[in-house]
UniProtKB/TrEMBL annotation:
GO terms for molecular function: nucleic acid binding. This is Cold shock protein, CspA family. InterPro entries: CSP_DNA-bd (IPR002059), NA-bd_OB-fold (IPR012340). It comes from Pseudonocardia ammonioxydans. Gene3D superfamilies: Nucleic acid-binding proteins. Residues 1-65 form the CSD domain. It comes from the Bacteria.
Length: 66
């Protein structure tokens, strides 16, 4: 499990970016946000998640707010 801070999230497109605490960044998608019916993230919000790596970069999955 990783932790990080939301850099940005566009509720219209459902895509954003998370700064992983280890210094990397990961893409966040609405479809991977879990818990409480919340389908959006706020800038500066702390989250924990799993990482899935793709040729184009890292993607945050199973995203929960702290």
């Amino acid at each position: 499990m990783h932790t990080g801070t939301v850099i940005s999230f566009d509720p219209q497109t459902g895509v954003g970016e998370i700064a992983v605490d280890d210094g990397a960044t990961a893409t966040a998608r609405r479809s991977h946000i879990e818990g409480g019916g919340c389908q959006s993230l706020r800038e500066g919000e702390r989250v924990h998640f799993e990482l899935r790596h793709h040729p184009g970069g890292a993607e945050a999955i199973d995203v929960y707010t702290l």
